[in-house]
Design goal:
Length: about 150
C-alpha cells in the first residue's frame, strides 16, 4: 500500500492489463493479530502499469516476489472497516461448489471474480470508501506497529 504496487511470486503467471479494476483484500494476519482481525475487502484499485520484472527480488512474509505492477488506489475503507469476506462466501459464485474451502483460494495473488460477485462486493463496499490519501496513513501506522511487535 505504501508503494502503491502489487508484487507477484515467480511461480504465478498473472494476467492483468493496465486499467483492470481490482478489489483489495487484507488477510486477518496482515496486522499481526489473526485472533482479533478478520480478512476484509478494504478498497478498490486500478492497474496502472504493465507487470514487469522487479529490479531485485523482494521477500515479504517469507515469500519471494519477482515481478509487479503499479496500482492506482481509488478508494479505501477506514481502518477496521470493509467487507468481511467470510460473512459472504456463501453468496459468491467464485467459491462454489464448496464455500468452506474459500480461504485456500484466497492464497492466490489475484483471484478473478465473476461479474456478479464483483458487483455484490462493490455494492457493499462503495458506501465505505474514502479518498485513500485520507485513510492510508492509518493502515501504514498499524502495519508498522504490528511489525515492531
Amino acid at each position: 500500500m505504501r508503494e502503491r504496487k502489487m508484487a507477484f511470486p515467480p511461480t504465478r503467471r498473472i494476467r492483468l492489463e493496465v486499467g483492470d479494476q481490482l478489489l483489495l483484500y487484507m488477510t486477518r494476519n496482515v496486522f499481526g493479530s489473526p485472533s482479533r482481525d478478520r480478512g476484509r475487502v478494504v478498497g478498490t484499485a486500478q492497474v496502472a502499469s504493465p507487470i514487469m520484472p522487479l529490479e531485485r527480488e523482494r521477500h515479504i512474509g517469507g515469500r519471494s516476489y519477482t515481478s509487479g505492477c503499479e496500482l492506482n488506489i481509488t478508494g479505501l475503507a477506514p481502518l477496521g472497516e470493509g467487507i468481511v469476506l467470510a460473512d459472504i462466501v456463501d453468496q459468491l459464485r467464485v467459491f462454489q461448489p464448496d464455500p468452506r474451502t474459500w480461504s485456500a483460494r484466497m492464497r492466490r495473488s489475484v483471484l478473478a471474480l465473476p461479474a456478479e460477485d464483483a458487483a455484490l462486493i462493490h455494492k457493499q463496499l462503495e458506501p465505505l470508501l474514502l479518498d485513500p490519501e485520507k485513510t492510508v496513513g492509518l493502515y501504514l501506522e498499524r502495519a508498522e506497529s504490528a511489525r515492531r511487535g
